[in-house]
Amino acid sequence: MLNPFFKNNGPFNLRDILKELNLKNNQNNEDIKIVDIKDLQNSKLDEITFFHSLKYKSVANNTKASYCITTEKLKNELPESCKPIIVDNVLVSTSIITSKFYPDSVNDDFDDTVEEINNTKFHDKVKFGKNVLIGQNVSIGLNCLIGHNSIIEKNVSIGDNCSIGSNTIVRNSLIKNNVKILDNCIIGKHGFGFFPTQNKNLRYPHMGIVIIEDNCEIGCGSTIDRGSMSNTIIGSNTFLDNQIHIAHNVKIGENSIIAGQVGIAGSSVIGKNVKIGGQAGISGHLKIGDNVEIAGGSGVIKDIPDNSKVMGYPAKNIREFLKDNR
User: Fold this and answer.
1) Most buried among 89, 192, 235, 288, using CB within 10 Å?
2) Among 105, 125, 155, residue at a domain's last position
3) Tens digit of pLDDT for each residue in 225-254?
4) Which residues are part of the catalytic machinery?
5) Within-domain flag for 148
6) Do residue 179 and residue 316 come from a single domain?
7) What's residue 25's pLDDT?
């Protein structure tokens, strides 16, 4: 499930999509309707996707999309059912088409629909502090707390028995039951997604959401960006310490523990029962297996298999690291 909050302006004729990319159509199928744009794994018939790196070769081989924005070099990795749309810069082209389908997902200005909680249906349902604001399309479950100066912006669902700290902002998020989000957190805002072009930096749309599963805790001063082409997910019973940054599209498995000042770059997938020490950094588009332990201060720049213990920069097996640093 992608963001249920952003409106899809499609479908669009293929000719309109090609025109947006300044491409000519030589296939005589300009009247074909394209209903949505999604990533390789989630796209379906009559949808368009994108393929920009051999890292995603296996997923590209099995995509169900009808069309794919890609390069001449990569087009042969697609199944016969998926027709390539050849461009020079896949990510920039994908940004342009995503903006066409989801124009409201590009910018992330403050929510001007918010009201004082005393003027909403939640005034006698939620225990709250001073200066609490609530936006439109918000639902809040039973036995919830919201601290001073916090803003629950539009498009948020909060389950039962949740606690939102003071000076916290939440938007575009699904928060399940028994979740604690401590003070000074930012949840569900636009991620750090842009592409440098000749004249400016092109902002990438973020049409995903943040999903925080049951029984999680998010430490003070942490930021969790919503997804761009998929969702950012925090698995159940996962605890984040203070001042942690989770970038767009990151998936963290259940029962994981992440210490303070850790940064996880976009689209990395963290397995179950993972422990990450303080001030560790994980590069983007990596896969960290189940039951992995990453020592504090480590720099992870490649995939880590299940049941590994690593440390150092670049992070490597802990026994190898200790042997090399005697």
Assistant:
1) 288
2) 105
3) 999 888 999 999 999 999 999 999 999 999
4) 248
5) yes
6) yes
7) 64
